[in-house]
Amino acid sequence: MPTVQDTILLAAYNADMNRKLYDAAARLPAQELHADRGAFFGSLLGTMNHLIAADTIWLTRFARHPAGFAALAPLRDAAIPSDLQQQYGDDLPMLQAHRTRLDGFITGLAAQLRQEDLDTTLTYRNTRGIEHHKHFGAVLLHFFNHQTHHRGQASTLLTQAGIDIGVTDLLLLVDDA
């Protein structure tokens, strides 16, 4: 299972890659951002919106963790979105504002984690209302892996549109021993 340091690294990588993704996407005209490219969520904006929707769902669940993370306090009483395609905007600046806010929550959460928090059970309901009890550290690994998965799709869509996002390796953030 992850350590607190692993989570801090993944949160930093997440924020860095999201900045790269949005910077690269900003080089495309609006019609290219909206173009259906046959991805699971259609367009580049659709994929980026899905990441925001899924992260919002998970962060709202994490806000109810027994540790009561102060970084997630603004989400504690928020309704948990029920749709993985809930719309958070129809243009890049609107999505970027949401993305920046979420990345702040994520890095704040990582900074507040203690190992015992990772070792607890998170109880939540999925989007169909089914209750789950999962190891919180493992859920965090899923959370970061999901982001990486869909950012990989977005990176491919950008490459197909002629935009290079740059190096995407986590290894760049790993310190030398």
The order of strands across the largest sheet is 1-2
Q: How many H/I helices?
A: 6
Helix content: 40-55%
Number of strands: 2
Major sheet characteristics: 2 strands, antiparallel
End-to-end Cα distance, whole Å, is 21 Å
Instruction: Give the averaged pLDDT, no decimals.
Output: 95
Bin the strand percentage: 5-15%
Oligomeric state, counting identical vs distinct chains: single chain
Which descriptor suits the 3D outline?
globular
Write the element-wise H/E pattern from the N-terminal end onward.
Answer: HHHHHEEH
Which structural class matches the secondary elements?
mainly alpha
Radius of gyration: 16 Å
Low-confidence stretches: none
Furnish the topology, listing elements before pairings.
Blueprint: H1 4-25, H2 30-34, H3 44-62, H4 92-112, H5 115-118, E1 121-125, E2 131-135, H6 136-160
Antiparallel strand pairs: 1-2
Helix pairs in contact: 1-4, 1-6, 3-4, 3-6
Polypeptide structure, described:
This protein is mainly alpha-helical. Helix content is 54%, strand content 6%. It is built from six helices and two strands. It has helices spanning 4-25, 30-34, 44-62, 92-112, 115-118, 136-160; strands at residues 121-125, 131-135. The chain has a two-stranded antiparallel ribbon with strand order 1-2. β1 and β2 (131-135) form a beta hairpin. α3 packs antiparallel against α6. The longest helix has 25 residues, at 136-160. The mean pLDDT is 95.
